[in-house]
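Task 17 of the worksheet. Students: predict the tertiary structure of the chain below and write it out as structure tokens. Keep your answer in the requested format; marks are given for formatting as well as content.
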Amino acid sequence: MTDELATQLARRQMVLALLYAAENPARVIEVCSTAETSGDELTRTLADACGLSMFQADVILTMQVRRFSPHAVTQMRAELLDIDQAIDQLKG
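Model answer:
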């Protein structure tokens, strides 16, 4: 796997995590507000509760609230399409 492909695959996981949070804000808030842990344990709790990787859960926990706006969601969907096209090209 090339470095560029690895980068695009990581970006894809990040955008998918942001979209998950933007499309499921109540679930993310519920898990975070009822968790009795912090740090890595909170990341693990969110990952387990939502079927996410630790990386994706960490992305969600560090995201800015502005990412929940409809405009931001539209931008993330467009970015995801661009990433998928880049991955397809890199895979040949």
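Marker's comment: The chain has a mean pLDDT of 93. The two ends are 12 Å apart (CA to CA).
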